[in-house]
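Final paragraph of the annual report: two paired records, presented back to back.
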Amino acid sequence: MWVAGLRALYLQALHPRVMRGTWQNTSFNKPGEAWGRFVRTTEFVSVRTYGTTAQVDRAGRRVRKIHAMLTGTDPDGRMFRLDEPDLLMWVHCGEIAAYVDIARRSGMALSAGDLDSFVDEQRRSAAVVGLDPATVPASVAELDAYYESVRHGLYACAEAKQALLKSYHPDVPAQLLPLRLMLPPINTLAFATLPRWARRMYGAPAVPLTDLGATVALRMAHQSVTRIPRELIYLPAARAAHRRERDRAAA
């Protein structure tokens, strides 16, 4: 999840309007602001994934309200809304494609049909932020086709490159300072899992050997994590969801 989440952020930053809108509405240079935004995003994903329907509805209304109030400005002075469907679509697809790619390359026991089902199910996630599920990719093939259709408008703007550098030196709270040691290797792995065309946009080498090395590292990481007791690695929200399922089954 950490690797996939960071990969999604690096990919999402390649849409200039998404990146500028995020940058202009978040004080990245203000202590704690960027980290706070990252934590809020993580909490939203946790609730959306494991929360009850009522919790997801509340979180969705809050996010849609916030997005509806925010705007960004292009270099030529044109303004845009952060809740424009094409921007929401890009963010959604970046997240879901990251989960699919990392799960597949990590060696998880998922068939092509499983991954297609996951992409299809996540159209409900797209609806939470305000997208029409009927317009959202419903399979891995449709995700791939979406990326082919939008790549011509992508590039690493100045804000995207600054955000990449800042991700290696996050302004984390004092109690989380050990993260500063953990994040650089995780960030590097996440960046290495990007598609070659995305790495090239950042000005980084894009050779097949990097893809192979990243896949090997993902498989090793997955194998090591599967040996950790689940109660130690599950998010509290995930544990609560599992308890609800057990109670429902018992009832």
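The closing record of the year follows.
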Amino acid sequence: MGVERGSETSELKKKLKFEPIGNNLSNLQELGKKLKPIYRGAFRRKYGNLLGLLELEIEISIVTTLAQYYDSYMRCFTF
């Protein structure tokens, strides 16, 4: 079963075509900055640090590389 799974994974890696697109998140960043502290706190309690993710710089090449090794069936990265 493990051998079959490995061959399926390698076939999927060959077929997977992942092309991330860069999004302009400046509008969302501005909206996040305009939130009053009470609403920001409520948003954080409900969704966690989601607003903090808007401030991160994303390296597209790293995301593309990681996507090649992601196993959606097992929900993990396989190297």
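The chain has five helices and two strands. This concludes the annual technical report; the extension proposal builds directly on these records.
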